[in-house]
């Protein structure tokens, strides 16, 4: 009996040894395979292929353009790009999708993902990650900030794009101006910004203002202005049943606060887009702005900004509901209607430009990477003061800062129209909120959200 047990033990040991040896061989083979993968080899079948991307006139895209020659040299793939104003970029792509056009690299805003993925215009990332010839073993989807991959690249349970040009709302301020007014730090809350800092930093006679909130009619009004003041005050556009929440006590408090900000902002603020708000701070005409992290490189550029030595960055101010900063950004995905060769070439570009390997060159060229590792780099933290407040915002941000569903573009137009009327004083906050809410519910009702035809969240 003992001998039998001994034979069993020896047999088990032999089996484990064989299994270990087999596993080691497989592991070595896989490791060798992973080490053998190169961008150059993966791109060889697509050498000479031309693809087209949609870019914006923003620092992150200028950074990508600076890096493009390296990709083209390694792969032989030509990346053409069209620079489109943000306000026209969705329409430009939708026309391309419905007309069977030429765009291969799709730029998807956080609020377009439902429309683009829901209509089958985006190729699932799985198509490429399942292909060993195209998938870089070092891709690491879990290397992106979860809030970014979820918000900008994912619809349902499927990933359709990789985070590329991603933003947190930050407070940029002129520390010299604040110091001259007696402040040694930025406002911690929105209430402080308005009621403590605002009066001391506003000098209308000399056209100097405490703050500028970009509010031009369009997506800038609906997202960067209107939505920005809801969450910190505990409000929201919709409740958990997708009914309007704009006339709640909290939402009304946020919208009223925005109206009160008008007295410390420049005249004509409803015509300010991002460029105007950034320039107002850069030229010393306003002391503070809440803007996207991507604009740090513009404000830190001495050829574009007069306040480079005085520029400082913090998280957005907190409201009664706590720190609820704006969340924005884009992913890059592949057009599902492109040819197989162009799909592969587009994927290789997207995978490369958003990779961990390219994160540091991208940041140094003026972009904002969605990768976590790059922001642990002590050198990057020291050179780019926006990093720490941005990471703090992403770690505790607002995933549904704007609702991610296909109907958003239509709702955005409604919010932009009535939001502008509110700021101009052409309609009361209460009546404007009721008008927006009624139209929102009409649109969502027609889309089937209240009949159970569509899920409330994706």
TrEMBL record:
InterPro entries in alphabetical order: Bact_solute-bd_prot1 (IPR050490), SBP (IPR006059)
Keywords: Signal, Transport
GO CC entries: periplasmic space
Keyword Transport: yes
Cell compartment(s), UniProt: Periplasm
Primary location recorded for the protein, binned into one broad class: periplasm
Signal peptide bounds: 1-36
Keyword Signal: yes
Similarity comment text for this entry: Belongs to the bacterial solute-binding protein 1 family.
UniProt protein name: Sugar ABC transporter
Species for this entry: Skermanella stibiiresistens SB22
């Amino acid at each position: 009996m003992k001998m039998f047990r001994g034979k069993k033990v020896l047999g088990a040991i032999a089996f484990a040894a064989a299994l270990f040896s087999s596993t080691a061989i497989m592991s070595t083979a896989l490791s060798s395979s992973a080490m053998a993968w190169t961008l150059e080899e993966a791109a060889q079948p697509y050498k000479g292929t031309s693809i087209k991307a949609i870019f914006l006139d923003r620092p992150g895209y200028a950074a990508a353009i600076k890096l493009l020659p390296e990709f083209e040299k390694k792969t032989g793939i030509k990346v053409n790009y069209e620079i489109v104003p943000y306000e026209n970029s969705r329409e430009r792509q939708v026309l391309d999708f419905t007309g069977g056009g030429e765009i291969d690299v799709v730029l998807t805003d956080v609020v377009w993902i439902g429309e683009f993925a829901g209509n089958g215009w985006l190729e699932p990332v799985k198509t490429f990650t399942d292909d060993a010839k195209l998938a870089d073993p070092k891709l690491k989807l879990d290397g992106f900030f979860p809030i970014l991959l979820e918000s900008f690249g994912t619809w349902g349970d499927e990933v359709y794009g990789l985070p590329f040009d991603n933003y947190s709302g930050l407070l940029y301020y002129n520390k010299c101006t604040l110091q001259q007014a007696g402040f040694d730090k930025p406002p911690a809350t929105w209430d402080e910004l308005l009621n403590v800092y605002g009066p001391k930093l506003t000098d209308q006679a000399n056209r100097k203002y405490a703050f500028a909130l970009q509010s031009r009619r369009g997506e800038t009004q609906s997202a960067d202005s209107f939505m920005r003041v809801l969450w910190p005050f505990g409000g929201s556009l919709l409740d958990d049943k997708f009914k309007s929440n704009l006339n709640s006590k909290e939402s009304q408090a946020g919208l009223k606060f925005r109206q009160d900000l008008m007295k410390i902002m420049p005249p004509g603020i409803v015509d300010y887009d991002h460029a105007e708000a950034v320039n107002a701070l850069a030229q010393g005409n306003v002391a503070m702005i809440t803007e996207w992290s991507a604009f740090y490189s513009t404000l830190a550029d001495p050829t574009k900004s007069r306040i480079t030595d005085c520029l400082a960055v913090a998280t957005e101010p907190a409201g009664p509901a706590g720190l609820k900063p704006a969340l924005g950004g884009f992913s890059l995905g592949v057009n599902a209607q492109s040819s197989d060769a162009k799909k592969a070439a587009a994927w290789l570009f997207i995978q490369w430009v958003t990779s961990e390997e390219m994160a540091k060159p991208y940041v140094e060229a003026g972009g904002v990477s969605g990768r976590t590792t790059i922001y642990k780099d002590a050198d990057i933290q020291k050179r780019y003061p926006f990093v720490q407040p941005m990471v703090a915002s992403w770690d505790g941000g607002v995933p549904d800062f704007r609702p991610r569903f296909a109907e958003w573009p239509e709702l955005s137009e409604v919010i932009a129209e009535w939001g502008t009327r509110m700021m101009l004083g052409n309609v009361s906050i209460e009546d404007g909120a009721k008008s927006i809410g009624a139209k929102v519910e009409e649109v969502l009702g027609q889309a089937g959200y209240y009949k159970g035809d569509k899920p409330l969240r994706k």
